[in-house]
Amino acid sequence: MMNLLFKHVLYPMIKVIGANKIKKMIATVTNYAGIDLLTIAYNNIGILKFENYLASGEHFLITNVLRKYLTNVRPVIFDVGANVGKYSLMLVDEFPNSQIFAFEPNKNTYIQLKATVGNSVKCINIGLGAEEETAKIFTYTDNLTSSHASIYNEVFSTFHKSDCLNESDIKLTTLDLFCEREKVSKIDFLKIDTEGNELNVLKGARKMLANGQIKMIQFEFGECDVFSRVFLKDFYHILSEYNIYRLDTERLIPLFEYNSSNEIFRYQNLLAVRKDSPLQ
Questions:
Q1: Which residues lie below 8 Å from residue 195, measured CB to CB, with a gap of 6+?
Q2: Which of 2, 26, 67, 137 has the smallest number of CB atoms closer than 10 Å to its CB?
Q3: Do residues 139 and 166 make contact, with C-beta atoms less than 8 angstroms apart?
Q4: What is the pTM for the complete model shown?
Q5: Cα–Cα distance between 226 and 260 in angstroms, integer?
Q6: Mind listing the pLDDT tens digit for each residue in 85-104?
Q7: Residue 7 above 80 pLDDT?
Q8: Tens of pLDDT along 177-197?
Q9: What is the β-pairing status of strands 133-140 and 214-221?
Q10: How far apart, in whole angstroms, are the C-alpha atoms of residue 77 and residue 64?
């Protein structure tokens, strides 16, 4: 339908009126109607689609991409920043024989995580970072299990416009040290959602990354990276042996080689796949 509309109506109109005049008309109409063209453009390339797992493309990733890509009988999966366990449960449903480690440093959220996933997932009440240390985590005083919990308090004061914060101590270790202690030799799928601390999680996994022991990585990139002072270029550097994609509702968008035009600090989920084990 849209192809016919463009071919028989819009394209002839553009030829007659001219592209520049059409652009001005669109700008006038959208400004008058209060339509946010930038958000529409972002949505068209998988950005700011945070309504649910279907819109964000995470459901598509698990039920389509991972289903084809994770061929091991018992894949090893890390859910870093598991929150209350909804994502882990989707993984359990799709890969019932998998070994899933769910990391959640927030004590209140950890309790709810364990109640959600039961014995189907191994829950760990620590966070992952660039080194072993004790850190502060911040969340809302009236929502102690919020998925917005972050070690960067600016995320709340500047981005979420909230100063009513609860502050608590958490323990951090590195992915490399955890895997060494738990004798985890490979990770088939690593998901990271740590509200701005994603790069540090990867810095703590340098050994596993260098040895090709992590097959596929999903990580969030967006507004929180402003407060952790992280660029997309930093992810390209540490993931130099991976191809990078952006998740969309029902597709993966390849980002190819680094391009500064993709430095868009708005909510999006990216997927890194090892170059020596590419998607088919």
A1: 81, 148, 149, 150, 151, 152, 155, 220, 224
A2: 2
A3: yes
A4: 0.90
A5: 15
A6: 999 999 999 999 999 999 99
A7: no
A8: 999 999 999 999 999 999 999
A9: unpaired
A10: 16
